[in-house]
């Protein structure tokens, strides 16, 4: 393999690696406060559960969807998720979420290969969530990690991807 083709190969693989540059910080997805303190990442499919999520082509989202929370809302979200076992997503406005949609051009080229498959990403997120929850008593496991793990599990169960 030449150096040039290697570079192209890396560039092509980049979209699935989950590493992006140039992201702008979004406000709190609950109250629009720009002073956010915590963020979680959820699978694109979960967009369907969010406020104003209907028109978004979630299958065309590359990587995860990031939700930001301000300090006071984060405390509420922690209680809701960790104490009540409920997901905050229905109250999160997708307009304040951060995600990358495939370029139209790229989507056009990919049409012949069918819809992008979100399964791989969802399986990885579910595996990570299960690992985090299994380590819930570990002092290194933070509330943020547990909230993210529970929201991933709750949303994919609600959408019928994983078993309860
Ligand atoms: Zn807020």
Mean of pLDDT: 85
Sheet/helix structural class: alpha+beta
Radius of gyration: 17 Å
Helix amount, in percent? 40-55%
Biggest sheet strand line-up: 1-2-3
The biggest sheet, with number of strands, parallel, antiparallel or mixed sense and barrel status, is: 3 strands, antiparallel
Tell me the span between the first and last alpha carbons.
46 Å
Task: Output the keywords.
41% helix, three-stranded antiparallel sheet, 3 strands, single chain, 13% strand, binds zinc ion
Structural description of this entry:
The protein has 164 residues and is α+β, with helices and mostly antiparallel strands. The protein has one domain (25-158). It has 5 helices and 3 strands, in the order αββαβααα. A 3-stranded antiparallel beta sheet has the order 1-2-3. The longest helix has 16 residues, at 119-134. The radius of gyration is 17 Å and the shape is globular. The model is unreliable at 1-22 (pLDDT under 50). It binds zinc ion (ZN). The site of zinc ion has 7 residues, from β2.
